[in-house]
Design goal:
- The complex is a heterodimer.
- Chain A is mainly alpha-helical.
- Chain A is about 65% helix and about 0% strand.
- Chain A is built from seven helices and no strands.
- Chain A is elongated.
- The model of chain A has no long low-confidence stretch (mean pLDDT about 85).
- By secondary structure, chain B is an alpha/beta fold.
- In chain B, α3 links the parallel β4 and β5.
- The longest helix of chain B has 23 residues.
- Chain B is elongated and about 85 Å long.
- The model of chain B has no long low-confidence stretch (mean pLDDT about 90).
- The chains are: A mainly alpha, B alpha/beta.
- At the A-B interface, α4, α5 and α6 of A face α1 and α4 of B.
Chain lengths: ~160, ~180
Amino acid sequence: MSPSRRGWIPWILLGVVAAGVLVWAVWPSGDPTDAERTRSLAHELRCPDCESLSAADSQTASARAIRRDLKQRVAEGQSDATIRRAYVDRYGESILLKPERGGLGLLVWGLPVLLLIAGAGALVVAFRRWRGAAPLQPTDDDEALVREMRTGERAS
Amino acid sequence: MKHPARWVAGAVAVLLVAFSVVLATQVGSDPRADAKKSQLAGKDAPEFTVETLDGQELTEADLAGKATIVNFWNTWCIPCREEHPELTKFYERHADDPDFVMLGIVRDDNRKAVDRWMRANGDAWTIATDPGGNAALSFGTRGQPETFAISPDGLVVGYQFGPSSVRDLETLLAAARGGTGL
């Protein structure tokens, strides 16, 4: 293997490790139970009559009613998307604490990823440039200046 | 590609500009603007079941064929108390209208407080409690008082968030009867 190819090995290993950690972090660990789904959905929905709290964190009558309703819908076998849609139909998009992954929400989710990719691309370009740049060579004037200074030092 | 860094920077700039344009044109300055309007407007009234103070179940089906005003309230809510004289005046005007019904749904209160309120005020319109808060949830309420107008064929044709005046209530009733709503 040529030295230039060998130089890529740490980067490839780093990429593999990073990808592995990401997959491990986001991979679902088995099917969630009904209680887990209910809790997760309650964390996604805003409590309608309090500011910036989820239905899971609030103790208002509305939040309690939402938790009961979610439990019932999950037990009936409704999908998470169907349940979210039912709440959006009733309260509007503002009931969701996280934007939906579609329409305008897709932009909000996708833009950071695109920016991350663009940033990584910019880094790759910058690293290549730094590596490809020829090392600075002293000009004749530089060498003459150094000779002159050394001569001066010896004379003193 | 001659200047890759410039292309990347250009792509990022284009993305940011596109994002800004979308945010400026599609998103209002108030992220909770839709909290000020009912998503039910123009749709079928939701299914609900409430319990009248004499223990009878009442559902949306019982209101069919009537111009209906549904008012969500609580005894402890100050705006609801301020609204109460207006509701009383309005109801007195229309109590004998054969096509009209007014329903007060207690949104989040205890029964003792409601009974005390009724002894003191003796509201003549139908008052019901909302066990489990399901009716409040079905109507997508965010607080109280909130008032909805339902047409005889079961459509939500008007709403008022916050205290209603007699004039507001007349407008809602006119909408429920087929006049101008929403």
